[in-house]
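Input chain follows. Return structure tokens only.
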Amino acid sequence: MKDVIVIGGGPGGYVAAIRAAQLGASVTVVEKENLGGTCLNKGCIPTKALYKNAEVVHSVSTMKEFGVNIDGGFTIDIPQIHKRKEEVVFKLVDGVRRILNSYEIETIFGSAEIKDKNQVVVHKNDGETENLETKNIIIATGATPYIPDNMKSDNPNIMTSDEIINFDHIPKSLVIIGGGVIGMEFANIFHAMGTEVHVMERNDRILHRLDSDLSKRLQAHVKKQGMKIHNKAFVKELNSKEDGSIEVVGEEKGKELILNCEKVLVAVGRRPNLKGMNLENLGVNHSLKGIETDDNYETNVEGIFAIGDVLGRVMLAHEASHHGIIAAEAAMNKRITHNGSVIPSAIFTSPEVATVGLTEEEAKAKKMDYVTSKFMFGGNGKALAMGDSHGFIKVIANGDTIVGVHIMGLNASDLIHEGVLAVSRGMRIDDITGTVHAHPTMSEGFAEAVMGLKGDSIHALAPKKK
């Protein structure tokens, strides 16, 4: 009998397996497709590889600004783009395999069916069936793209993120339905490579869950770059034409909207993978939105845990990994990791966006006596020298305590972690302003933004006298 069976080998599942093994557990991971799950194979990693391609294309396109001239232009090699992407994915997936093997974690490839809280049946990919007994089960089956009924089609040019990631050519035109994280990251990738991109978003701005200062400024920036953003817009139907192209019929701000395009990306959200888990017969509390758990990610059935996207909450790989560590420790009755509630997010648009803690809208809703400060990267020496001074750092404080940090700009996904420490540890303004930041760096902008909470920012114009 195993101590732990983990169903799903993504960033939640394989991390849970490793942590359980570190605590002395005998562990089996059951994975239907590839280790690493959506993140390593279809999501976070391959999209970031493509993001780098988009960044390189942008850099080449703007080289004249840096005194570098390329006569005759340049071409984009699609097979080489995918070759590089697949090499990156292979290295990471193989790295996960090696780590699991080093901890003597058994990996079985197939579909799992939970018979009861101590028995899992695996229908292996080679056609065989194996019965496994265990003391604990951790469900980490992730989520899949959601396609509304009015957008389902046999037309291969109507795609989700799973399909478009393997594009065989750069489309002339692309309509993206959904202006959330997935939609905007792909919008950035294809726009940089020359595609005419339209984004349809139901809300009044893209990435509407972000602090409004961030999302409004990013929307203005991408529109200035030539991307077409349609707010308060929704799709009524998708009509396939004889040549395979698509007519998108919908509304924008109450008026008819018709867009003709080569390809459509449906990016309206993801739904938890619950198929085959037998949750009803097990008595596990759940809904179509996801599985219910306690703070240790244990369900109402003792010994059955659920982590990551299958919970239907915030779907982030690093949050799933954190869940996995906590669930593994709980399964082994060794609670070590604190259940961190401060989870950062990073969005790989151009420029990058990253955020942690409360937005200003959330601070208002809580009726906090808060203050905000922004430092524009136009006043940062490193940003100017790098030729990328778009964006800012915004800090929110409740009294003297930092409660939110929001960044738009170069390397925002890396810069956010000083903000994560500040918010998660309840740091005060003086904790940051009393810390020397190296020059010239983007991180100076965080110190300047925090200094601005008291009107003390050095590299900003003096506050207007009242």
